[in-house]
Amino acid sequence: MRRLFPLIPLLLTGCVSLNSVSLTQIPAERGNRVRAEASKFLFLGISFDNDYVDEVRDELKSRCKGGLVTGILTKDEYINYFLFIFAKRRVEAQGYCVK
């Protein structure tokens, strides 16, 4: 048991990596900011589909009815929770709704 005790902190640690960031042209009119995010839990880092990303697009569109979302900043994060067994993929997008 004493030999395993130093390994306990390793089992409880995690890390986050930012895979990509993209930015479209920022509009002059920046009054109405909109934001959306979606995430998916992964087992052993395996993802069989990326449908959760469509939720971000749909949510941004619903928050800007009758307008156009521009100046979009997107972030794609990969979050490790437990020895690379459990992880989460998170996509966040924010922009400005221009009527």
Question: Which features would summarize this protein structure in a list?
Answer:
99 residues; alpha+beta; four-stranded antiparallel β-sheet; 2 helices; 4 strands
Q: How would you describe the overall organization of this protein?
A:
With 99 residues, the protein is of the alpha+beta class. The protein has one domain. The chain is 15% helix and 48% strand. Strand 3 and strand 4 form a beta hairpin. It is elongated.
User: Rg to the nearest angstrom?
Assistant: 18 Å
- Which percent range fits the helix content? 10-25%
Q: Tell me how many strands there are.
A: 4
Distance between the termini: 64 Å
Strand ordering within the main sheet: 1-3-4-2
Largest sheet: 4 strands, antiparallel
Query: How many alpha or pi helices?
Result: 2
| Total discrete domains | 1
Taken from the alpha-carbon principal axes, the silhouette is elongated
Q: Helix/strand-derived class?
A: alpha+beta
Query: H/E element string?
Result: HEEHEE
Uncertain regions: pLDDT < 50 for 5+ in a row? none
Taken as a percent bin, the fraction of beta residues is over 45%
> pLDDT average, as an integer?
81
